[in-house]
Design goal:
Mean pLDDT: 97
CATH class of the largest domain: Alpha Beta
Distance between the termini: 35 Å
Order of helices and strands: EEHEEHHEEHEHEEEEHEEHEEEH
Low-confidence stretches: none
Number of strands: 16
Largest sheet: 10 strands, mixed
Strand content: 25-35%
Number of domains: 2
Structural class: alpha+beta
CATH superfamily of the largest domain: D-amino Acid Aminotransferase, subunit A, domain 2
Bound molecules: pyridoxal-5'-phosphate
Helix content: 25-40%
Oligomer: single chain
Length: 281
């Protein structure tokens, strides 16, 4: 397998990571996950833009132009012969003697790799269960930071309780999932948390909002409460790997009739049309 390591594509066994890499010691870095459909990077430009924005927000400078970076990711996918899968890529502030403050004259460390992944078609057809969990993360969730402890703890709790995902809430307000964005549909209107510092503005979310606009579906980007979430006609989550994923139960409450809703199905199909694959059932 080929790995992207600081601007070069190398064999996996040639990858060297320092014990003092700040990603390893502080989670001092950011990352992206980009979906590959039939050998093509889906919404690559948007993911690459967000990678540069996240890096800038924590004052890391990506040492290549976006075009060069895009080409590296494309070459990596090609060299690993990835048909359907994903690219994971991260940048850390670099390796230096352990001190909280930024090191001086240290180069950032970029590592990327690919993986084959199937689309979660069965879950997409049946829908998944999610559970409400308090959002105890920091206040810069707009940054796709390597610090994922809040997300990891929430996902693990959901998983141990038999749920596919955590519906995070700050007090009464539903924010997003542990690794996804959340949406409710009531009386034909789609509700989702606005893209503030409290959520990651998902690339899948942006595609979905574009589809809604195209279809003339009204979207209200305003916070909704836990109680409102339980009373939605339909509910779904989205992410690069789960696409438009119906949520049919939240914390033991059935949403709608417990099967994926009509509008959710329509959005799934429109999303699929965008990735130029066949239609689900
Ligand atoms: N919110 C969080 C916290 C995430 O980790 C992710 C990524 O998986 C998302 C939302 C969805 O973002 P995207 O659609 O860009 O994958």
């Amino acid at each position: 397998e080929w790995i992207l390591s600081n601007g070069e594509i190398v064999k996996e066994q040639d990858l060297e990571i320092s014990k003092e890499d700040r990603g390893y010691q502080f989670g001092d870095g950011i990352y992206e996950v980009i979906r590959v459909y039939e050998g093509d990077l889906f919404t690559a430009t948007e993911h690459i833009d967000r990678f540069y924005q996240s890096a800038e927000k924590i004052r890391i400078t990506v040492p290549y132009t976006k075009d060069v970076f895009h080409k590296m990711l494309h070459d990596l996918v090609e060299m690993n012969s990835i048909d359907n899968g994903q690219v994971y890529v991260q940048i850390t502030r670099g390796a230096a003697e352990r001190n909280h403050q930024f090191p001086v004259n240290v180069e950032p460390v970029v590592v990327g790799y690919t993986k084959s992944v199937e689309r979660p078609v069965a879950f997409m057809e049946q829908g998944v269960k999610a559970t409400l969990i308090e959002d105890v993360r920091w206040l810069r969730c707009d940054i796709k930071s390597l610090n994922l402890l809040g997300n990891v703890m929430a996902k693990q709790q959901a998983y141990e309780e038999g749920y596919f995902e955590a519906v995070l809430h700050r007090g009464d307000t539903v924010t997003e999932g542990s690794s996804s964005n959340m949406y409710g549909i009531k009386d034909g209107v789609v509700y989702t948390h606005p893209a503030t510092n409290l959520i990651l503005n998902g690339i899948t979310r942006r595609v979905i909002l574009e589809i809604c606009e195209e279809f003339g579906i009204k979207v209200v980007e305003e916070p909704f409460t836990k109680q409102q979430a339980l009373e939605m006609d339909e509910f779904f989550m989205s992410s690069t790997t789960t696409e438009v994923m119906p949520v049919v139960e939240i914390s033991g409450h059935t949403i709608g009739n417990g099967t994926p809703g009509k509008m959710t199905r329509k959005l799934q199909q429109a999303f699929e049309a965008r990735i130029k694959l066949g239609v689900i059932s």
